[in-house]
Design a protein that fits this description.
Largest sheet: 5 strands, antiparallel
Number of domains: 1
Distance between the termini: 55 Å
Helix content: 25-40%
CATH architecture: 2-Layer Sandwich
Structural class: alpha+beta
Number of strands: 12
Shape: globular
CATH topology: Enolase-like, domain 1
Amino acid sequence: MTFQLLQPTSLAEACSMLAAAPDETVPIAGGTDLLSEIRDGTAWPSTLIALDSITDASLVGITETRDGGLRIGALTTIADIAAHEGIRSRYAALAQAAGGLATPQVRNLGTLGGNLNQRPRCWYYRHPLTVCLKRGGDRCYAVPGVGKYLCVTGGDRCFIVHPSDTATALTALGASVTVASTSGERTIPIEDYFIGPDVDLMRENVLRPGELLTAATLPPPAAGLRSVYLKARERESGDFALVSVAAVLDIADSTIAAASVVLGGVAPTPYRATGTEDYLAGRAGTAVVPADAGAAAITNPRPLPDNAYKIPMASNLTARAVANLLTAA
C-alpha cells in the first residue's frame, strides 16, 4: 500500500491536518502498533501524520504540576517513563509497568500515547482474511474458536482485552488524560477514556474524530501511598500480559485509608477490582488476608471455554500485590 506522510511542526498544525480528513488520516509516533496493523492488513490509512516532527515541548517529557503531581507528554517514550526518578519513587506501579513492557527496542521507540491507544491483539481481529465484528463483520470468531488470550469479564459480542500495561497502572493511580483538536483541549479521567464493545464495537476509547491525545497527568501522591504492578505472561520478555494487576494503597496509621486495584488482560478495558478494594479499604493492615483480597478480584466472571485459567491467575497476582504492599518498608 502507499500513503502520504505529513510532517507538522506544531500541535495546532497536526490538529488541522487531522481535522481535514479524520477518517483517512492517522497519527504516527513510534509506530510500534500502527505499523503492525498496516502489515496485518487491519489499517489502511491514506495519510500519516508524523508526530515526531512536532517541536512543541509540551508533548515530550515529564514535568511537575502546580499541585505536586506529574504531567507526561504523549510523545514521551516508554523507556523514559520507566527511568524517571520521580515516577520510580512516587508512582512505582507506572515505572514497573513501563519497565516490563515489551522489549528494550519497543520501549525506546514506543510512546505513552501510542501505548494507551494501541489496538487489540486478538488474532482474529488482526488476521487479514478474517472479517470479525470489530472489522465490520457479522460474528466473533473467538466464541467457537480459540479464546485463550481473551477476556473473562465484560465481553459483549466481542471478547478483546485491552493490551496496554501503562493504561492499567495509570487507571489505578487515578490519572487523567488531555486531548486536543482544532476546537481546543479537554481533560478526561483515564477511567472514562477507555470504552468496551458494549459501548462501541469499533473503538476502544472516546477520542473524537480529529482529536489527538497530548498528555497524561498523575495526581499528587498521598503521604502513605504505595503502589506495585505485577503481570503474568508466557515469556519473560516481549509478551503481552495474560493477566496484570496494578495495586495502590494509601496507608495511614497502619490502616488502609484507600485502595485502588485495577486488572489488565481480563476485560476489554482496564478492570477495576471493586471487590478487592471494598475488602481492603478501612481495614487494618494486620487484619488483611491477601488470599481473601485476591479471591474478590473478579466479580461474576464469564470465561470462554479455554481461558478460565485467568480467574485464579488474577486472584493470585492480586494477593501477591497486596502482600507486597503490606510488607513494603
